[in-house]
Amino acid sequence: MGDRFRLFNFTHRDDYVVYLWVLRAMDRLRAVHRVQVGSEDVAAAMAELALAHDGVPMVDGSLRGRLDALAADGIVHRLEDASRAGSLERYRNRQSVYQFSELGYRAFTAVEDVLAARVRDANLSRLVFSDILDDLRSLAAANRAGDEEQVYRRISRLDQVMEDMVRRSARFHVTLGEIVTSTEASPELFLRYKNALLTHMTDVMAELDRHLPRLHRAVLDVEATGVATMLVRAADADDRPFLSPGERMEDWKRRWEVLRAWFTAEPGAESGAAELRRATRAAVSGVVALLRQLTEAQRGGVNRASELRHLAEWICDTPDEDAAYALAAAAFNLGSARHMGGAYDDVEQISPRATWWDAPGVEVALTPFRTGRQAGPGIPQPVRVDPRRRADLRREQIAARAAERRAARSLAERGPHGRALDEAETRVLLALLTRALEARSVVSGRLGSGDGSDDTVVLRLVPHSAGSSVRTPHGLLHLPGFALEIAPRAGTAHA
């Protein structure tokens, strides 16, 4: 990690602009397939750039030293090229050539991307959903037909489109959040583009609502053709030489799972498209709130800037310095300091002779710090209604109850003795036995019989001198002095 952060050292030097144009000159030579270049080649490229750009600095004889500094940071590789020496004297001198390292070129392009970024370029693409739908349908057709190259082309295009859509979405919402929350936003600029902004977000939400069910069905159609087969075909057509077949297979599997999670939701979770829709709706509400705030401020002529200007005028017009301090203290609530304190968890760590100035501070909860009141449990959170999860639980309960009834009918038909019970029958037997033991009565100093029942069968504890035993999956269950009788409950029918 330290080596990779070192790639950005040139941005912290005093002459970082010179280093930036040196790298731009090397990038210009790299674009015409001149990979290894010397210092004179870089100087010539910078001279060409100076003809088109006014900001190119003049580089004197220290160009080789700057290239060596870039090589020390790992942005470029320095190689010795003896073929460039035309004489023995030049051969004895160092004849170095330079070329971008792979990570160094990525660091340079990252800096260039930051310098070229414009806030007004942020947008959401509403036309991308129809392209994704067409690609999913074509992917299903290609996988069904066994066209390996077409499968690779379509799934690669889907991966690129999804990556671009996610990047655009994240950038747009971050930029919009800065506009809404920033106090330095220009009201005139915002009011000028408010209609276009609201229309843009509304169109994206309408397009997403229209395509989301179709995209969900298209993903399921692709899975119906065989996901494993599709991934094998994509990995076989992938021509990246530095990855093994297993690594390519895992890479395409990860990409497909990400794409699937965007348009299909698991139980109890939202899909990526649903989260995008929710974030866009919240952004629309924030824009409308900011628009209302700006409109009211312009209508009334009072905003934060005008309030501060009026306050400054009042302070300047006070008769003396004490009155100015008093007015400022009243305006900014400087006189109502709340003194708080607390005890350490381990009082032995702090010497009792230490003053409050020298002793370390005590952590204080945020609520008493802001309001002076003790922190409470807070208001109850709203219960999240999940009909899908509720339906799943209902189906599980119905299935469990049906299994209990089958086990109870098996006990009634086959009896509990002379055989080994299974897990389901054992659970039913123990539940009925518990109810029967709780219902036993004492007659003439002796325990009488007891009954335990449910809506299917009835279990009776009958006094018996020899007792009885039941074989369960966990061993023998002995019942001294009692025998078991299990019969269907009156009014129930057996399937």
TrEMBL record:
For this protein, the record's InterPro entries field holds: CHP02677
Which Pfam families does this chain map to? DUF2397 (PF09660)
Official protein name in the record: TIGR02677 family protein
Taxonomic source organism: Microbispora corallina
The taxonomy runs:
Bacteria, Bacillati, Actinomycetota, Actinomycetes, Streptosporangiales
